[in-house]
Amino acid sequence: MCGIIGYVGEEHALPHLLEGLRTLEYRGYDSVGVTVSLGGEEPLLTVKTKGKLRELTEKLKTHPAAADGRCGIGHTRWATHGAPDDKNAHPHTTRHLSLVHNGIIENDAELRAELREAGISLLSDTDTEAAAWLLDRLYADSRDPVDALFRTAERLRGSYAFAVIFKDRPEVIYAMRRDSPLIVARGAQGCALASDVPALLRHSRACARLPEDTVAILRRDGIHAVNRRGFAVSLPTEEVAWDTEQAQKGGYAHFMRKEIDEQPDALRRTLSPRIRDGLPHFSLPSLDTDRIRRVRSLRMIACGTAMHAGLVGKRLIEQLARLPVQVEIASEFRYRDPLLDPAGELCVFLSQSGETADTLAALRHARAAGVPTLAIVNVVGSSVAREADEVLYTLAGPEIAVASTKAYSVQCALLTLLALRLALVNGRMTEEAVRACVRSLCEDVPAAVTATLAMSDRIAALVPPLAACEHLYFIGRGIDADLCTEGSLKLKEISYIHSEAYPAGELKHGTISLIEEGTPVLALMTDPSLSAKTLTAIREVRARGAHVLTVTTAALADALSLSAENVLLLPAIPSAAALPAPFALFPAACALQLLAYHTALARGCHIDQPRNLAKSVTVE
Ligand code: M6R
């Protein structure tokens, strides 16, 4: 959730910290701070503030000494405990140390009471400060940072990634984590740590994920890690395949727009390694022919946009392979004592970041129940990827904007391929039919998405009435209803327009009472088998005064004799009518993303960093 950075080396730390925080700002951006080691009487200088990096940069002008240190830690926050203000910003500095934290300490009330009794008055409302003082007291006892960190860990419930500098060891950074990522890298000029890879790429492309139950010790000349018993722990590095340029805006005004535009390439990159001889091919034991034949049902478990991709997966797998699929919101799944079938079910966990706390907890729940688990994840080496029995990576490249776009498309594409593989093994589709679908998925779909991107100006021109409204309804049937859930989420999270996605046939059972003169409705209609039904719903809302924007295909617009006014025509998928899979979903999803983007732009919203949100939700 929050972003952590640390640097110790030959160079001045502050530029590295600020640049790292700039890269990590998408993880949280309501307050920000740094601690820099200066040595001398007052060895640690902490500067922190409510607001974003520019506020910190301003404040640092009044602390010129901060520029001198060669070791430091920094933090960009997404508030959980206490308002986003100066006192709650990290780092938190105590008698002996300065500490930054990502995660949630669940027993902070108990710790606070204990600290109060010991005469310590905390300055902030955060759980972090309680952990910092706990560590401080244990360090005062032993003067051994590693021992104090492990003893602190024994007392903490919840999740954390900590980076700490002790006042009497100002040239060393100590780090430890549980259920919250921390990555370390050694560069030519020093060593660094961060909560996400993009912040480390300026130091090195060889990054190592810190294991749990381990303390990492970063010095100017190297990093080493130890376990509870004091034994060295190896930190194998992974070469990051993408570079800093890919993690930067590359001339775009917003990451979101860049990532929408990257979809054709992301689709090709994700699909091509999974195709052999024109058929879906996954080199995973869980997807070999014998294992697939034993699968009686599947479950898609995820949050937010990834859960919406699960809805598309359900639709495709049930339609093509005739296997029942349940879609579960991860935060609900883990607490409702679900009925699981370890012998016959496959649980699929979808996540862009692979660090979403609810998804990770649901995965652990399924594994503990003995159900085979498959992760579909974008971030290589992330917690969900490592803990699932098997992993299929979506190769979308780094997704920085809070609003997920390309990750959704590639999740839908991999799930389509999975549905085709299941359909083939189960004898529900012939090889020839599967080949035709795979061909279209790999060639026609990226081309149609490219053509949709070229319609950006046309989409922007449709936006003014939407940008002026405060409520909007998305309606559709079949897979269009699934896509509407994502279109609606995209719009609301970045434009702050309240919107609801409704299966068009369900409107008349209550919600239609909200339709009045001028109510904006977006009707998505790409499924020919249900278009007549959707058209009926469009007529019903129009009759009650709704202002309807219809997003459909040229073929359906012709067949239904729709007038051109207030209609957005999606690029065609050649031979779509002959294919059993509804591939219009891909250009439709892209059009809805562009619509949300242009609406937020017209409303002057913070597109990449919408209020109250963060990219990776590593807290429950
Ligand atoms: O990293 P994940 O895919 O697990 O994240 C899940 C959701 O938090 C995420 O999709 C969220 O809904 C996005 N902000 C939507 O754009």
Can you give a write-up of this model?
The structure is a single chain. With 620 residues, the protein is of the alpha/beta class. The protein folds into 3 domains: 3-242, Glutamine Phosphoribosylpyrophosphate, subunit 1, domain 1 (4-Layer Sandwich), CATH 3.60.20; 252-450, Glucose-6-phosphate isomerase like protein, domain 1 (Rossmann fold, 3-Layer(aba) Sandwich), CATH 3.40.50; 455-613, Glucose-6-phosphate isomerase like protein, domain 1 (Rossmann fold). Helices cover 36% and strands 22% of the residues. The strands form 5 sheets. The chain has an 8-stranded antiparallel β-sheet with strand order 3-2-4-1-10-9-11-15, covered by helices on one side. Helix 9 runs antiparallel to helix 17 (479-495) and helix 15 (456-462) packs across helix 20 (585-602). 55% of the residues are buried. The mean pLDDT is 92. Residues 303-306, 351-353, 356, 359, 402-404, 493, 616-617 line the site of 5-amino-5-deoxy-1-O-phosphono-D-mannitol.
**Overall number of domains:** 3
Portion in strands: 15-25%
Uncertain regions spanning at least 5 consecutive residues:
none
Largest sheet at a glance? 8 strands, antiparallel
The CATH superfamily of the largest domain bears the name Aminohydrolase, N-terminal nucleophile (Ntn) domain
